[in-house]
Each structure stands twice: as C-alpha cells, then as structure tokens.
Amino acid sequence: MMWYMRFSEFKTKAVTFSYDDGVVQDRRLAGIFDKYGMKATFNINGAFLGDSRTGDLGEDRSRLSVEEGMEAYKNHEIALHSYTHPFMEQIPHDTMAFEIVKDRECLESAFGRIIKGMAYPMGTTSDEVVEVLKACGVVYSRTTVQTERFGLPTDWLRLPSTCHHNNKRVFELIDAFIEKDVYRSPELFYIWGHSYEFDRNDNWDRIEDICKKLSGKENVWYATNMEIYEYIEAYKRLKTSADGKIFYNPTNTTLYFCDQNLKQYVIAPGETIKI
Predict the structure, then answer these.
(1) How many CB atoms lie within 10 A of CB 237?
(2) In terms of DSSP bridges, do strands 255-259 and 3-6 run parallel, antiparallel, or are they unpaired?
C-alpha cells in the first residue's frame, strides 16, 4: 500500500514567498500579500535595521525600523539574512558563525520570535557554510537557484525556488501549477525577490497580478517557508507498523495523508489509528 502526504485539510499544493533585506517597500508588499491571503517570509539583516540607503540605480533601499517591521510583518515570517550581508562562503568559519548567531540574537530580541530560517545573502553558499548553519540552529536557507518546477525541497539548507518574480515564465508557470492535477506527492510554488525591485522597475502591478492569479484556490495552502518546513518534517516523523495498518503521530501537528486510492486519513497529535 502506498501513502501520500497531504498538506493541512488535505490540500495538494502550497504557495510561499521569500523577500530579502527588510527594505521599506516591504510595507507595501506585505499589504498586497495580506490583501490576497498570501503568506511570506521576509529575510532581514539585523545590522541595518532602520538604516537609510540608496541603490545603484537610485532606488530607495532604506531598511524598516523594528517598530515598522513589527507592523509590516505581523502576518508573516521573519527570517535571517546574515548580520551584515557578506558572501558567506568567502569569510572565515568563525565569522560565518558570528554573522548567523548575531543576526539571530538581534532579530529574536527585536521581534520577540524564535528565528531559525534563512536566505543566503547574494544567494551563494558552500558545504562549509551549510555545516556552520546547522551548528547555529538554522533549519532551512534559500538560495537564488530557480528550478521552474514544483517539487518539494529535498535539501532544506540549499533551498531553491520555483522562480524569481521577474522570471519571464512566471505566469506560464502559475497556470501550469494551478491546472495540474496532483495524485502523489503534493507540490510547491515558491517565489522570491526584493521588494525594492518593484520601485526600480516600476512594476508593482506584476506582484499584484501574481497574487491575484494564485489566490483563492481551495486546494492550495498559503504558508510561510517555516510553516511548510515544519509540516513536512512533522509528517516524516509519522510512525507505522510493519504491515502498514497502524499509524502513530508522535508530533504536536495534525497530519493528513491518503492511500493510493485517494482515501483520506487525518491523525491528531499523539493519536494512533488503525486502517
């Protein structure tokens, strides 16, 4: 007998967003996400909270203050982006650890949350960086790799996206994602970027159209990066008997799955069920 994971309430698809640097344009972007029921992860450099700065093309790249971030990110996840935004793979190991732990310490103190997710500054990493992240308690970290696919992550510390919001195929990919029937493993649409890009390119209508096309789907779970990570990891802990007829859920998460005939099962935290 085959068993297939389902997201919360038997949803077969998930959508998530990841936006970097904690810039002032995040306020407008978070408002759009809230309008359409999207969930996002915002990756922040603790050293630059509240800083004023200008980008290479003259766009405003000032950073939100803690107070502004508390309001903008109230419905979303806050994650790490290193303390000062270096190329992580180009610095010594002890400095790598400082960049991660200091960012955690700063953001956790400022926002009152436990923070264990991350996006790599510049999107680059190495095996050495990954090992340091593990030692510092980071459980996932996003790269800038675009797969243009919808498979679930297999390496959370080298996490790719489906695409950047400016990918020329983004609307084609959204249509394919929405229209595809999912039978076995559930699927994920993952979009990343920087909100200042919408000012620089004068295309705020693009993210509005992306959210509009993805919103309101009954079979889609709209979740943060961490929510998706934690659900998948909880499902992996589901225990089964040798004959596959008894299931025990040792986690604190209600889990959903189906058999090869698409018969649905739900198992509460601490519950044992016989099938």
Answers:
(1) 12
(2) antiparallel
Which residues is 188 bridged to in the sheet?
A: 14
pLDDT value, residue 110: 98
- Strand spans (E) along 126-186: 140-146, 159-161, 163-164
CB 254 within 8 A of CB 9: no
Look up residue 240 and give its two tokens: 């089964």
What's the CA gap between 204 and 218, in Å, rounded? 26
Q: List b or e across 137-166, with b for residues whose CB sees 16 or more CB atoms inside 10 angstroms.
A: ebbbbbbeebeeebeebeebbbbbbbbebe
Buried b (16+ CB within 10 A) or exposed e, 6-31: bbeebbbbbbbbbbbbbbbbbeebbe
Instruction: Enumerate the β-bridge partners of residue 20.
Output: 43
pLDDT tens profile 171-224: 999 999 999 999 999 999 999 999 999 999 999 999 999 999 999 999 999 999
Terminal Cα-to-Cα distance of the chain (whole angstroms): 11
Question: Is 107 within 8 Å of 44 (Cβ atoms)?
Answer: yes
User: Which amino acid is located at 120 in the chain?
Assistant: Y
**Pair of tokens at residue 226:** 């961490």
Task: Calculate what percentage of the chain has a pLDDT beyond 90.
Answer: 97
For 249, counting Cβ atoms within 10 Å of its Cβ (0-12 exposed, 13-18 middle, 19+ buried), the class is: buried
Q: Which of 233, 231, 248, 246 is nearest to 8 (CA)?
A: 231
| 154, 232 Cβ separation under 8 angstroms | no
- pLDDT tens for 29-50 read 999 999 999 999 999 999 999 9
Nearest one of 226, 25, 250, 254 to 137, comparing CA atoms = 226
> pLDDT (tens digit, 9 = 90+) per residue, 122-147?
999 999 999 999 999 999 999 999 99
